[in-house]
Amino acid sequence: MTPGRLSADAAALGLELETDQCTALLAHLDLVQRWGRVYNLTALRDPAQMYGHHLLDCLVTVPALAVRVEPSARVLDVGSGAGFPGVVLAIARPDWQVCCIDAVAKKTSFIRQVAAELRLPNLHALHQRVETLASADFDLITSRAFASLADFTRLSRGARAPRGQWAAMKAKLTDAERAELPADVQVFHVEQLHVPGLAADRCLVWMRPDTDQPLTQPASS
Fold it and tell me: Is the pTM of this model over 0.85?
């Protein structure tokens, strides 16, 4: 894969990338492959599959995220693993401060190595369980294949800034999963996404606290 091909594919997704950004994104994939020979970073090993199922799958979210997230935003990627989407967001949006959090030490070590090798000062990594993080200053909290929406919002609630939002990458949102959300969390938008060449459902589920609802329902009389 070449930077020119990636630039064209990104443009088809509505995203303009500089040559150095395309080079960095492909270098990230190469690092995932190299580290994957020793560490279990991803189940995919084939470069062509990784390109579509990981890289383009994450890039398609960037224009959608940018509409609702301010420049210079602080972004938390929960259960980042090999850096999908955290590293991709950090490269595509160098104005965002992106923190990848994961409970597995080897995965956060990998993210730190990526940040050093690719010279990404806006990319950070935390080896920590997200429920123990209580900084409360992230404008956007995102995840990809991390957990159910109920667990995702519950575990990361303490990291959310006062006006922060959740955006979860999902195949689809079912009525059952929506119903399991905490009473004070509302899904305010579901954005359907399409990755060219990838025959799979994709969507971005946007959530925020419903300030009109109490955290607990009043006891019945």
Answer: yes
